Amino acid sequence: MAGGLVSWLQHPTPGPIVVFVLGVVAGYFIARFRYKSMLDARAERLEQYKEQLDGASPEEARRRQEEARRRIEALEVQVQSLTPRLLTAEQRRIISSSPVPENGSIQIGTDPTCFDAAIYAADLMATFQSAGWRVSTTNINVTNKSDLGLCLITQDKLSGNRPKNVILEALSRADVVFEEKPMQNRTGFPDLIVSKRIR
User: Which residues are within 8 A (CB) of 137 and not within 5 positions of it... i.e. 6 or more apart?
Assistant: First the structure.
């Protein structure tokens, strides 16, 4: 992600995009700090459990080990929830090498209530831009959000003349987790909607 953001900042961009990118960078470092704090807390908790097991009977040791396991698993869930989503290097490569239609443009909508939506959207934005797409972003009150955290709005499958959706193909080839939601009238909806991932 860092390479894409640096590339944006090296070229003149509209004011709103600059503000958006700076906000994403700030959000990324805040999320990384919170993530590191959780890891440090987990390491400290492990050391405490090891000290508590010293001198315990086998039965008491097993009980404490089971309690430690449950608490560590709960901490891991919390850490995972604070880890911002990002594309892998291979996913970026595949999307960047995908064909771009003439005058291809993408609008990405983000759910402002989701802590990593702007970070993930910025990564997607940089990747599609590197392939030659014109990309814009917007904060929206998400009504068509997906439990998978990324929703692609497409033309209704029942339409007799459904155009080839190159965004869908690029995401599918890159094995990006997303949900397609066909609509008869998608006017006013962005192409991609980033929201909290639930499953």
Answer: 17, 20, 107, 108, 109, 110, 121, 122, 125
> Which pLDDT score, from 0 to 100, does residue 83 have?
80
Interhelix angle 89-96/117-131, nearest 10 degrees:
40
The CA distance from 186 to 107, in Å, is 12
What are 149's two structure tokens? 């955290």
User: Domain residues of the chain, as ranges?
Assistant: 1-83, 85-194
Residues in CB range of 14: below 8 A, 6 or more apart: none
> 142 near 170, Cβ under 8 Å?
no
> What is the block-wise mean pLDDT of the chain (199 residues), using blocks of 10 residues?
47 50 59 65 67 66 79 70 86 93 87 88 94 87 80 69 72 94 73 85
Could you tell me the pTM of the whole model? Answer: 0.61
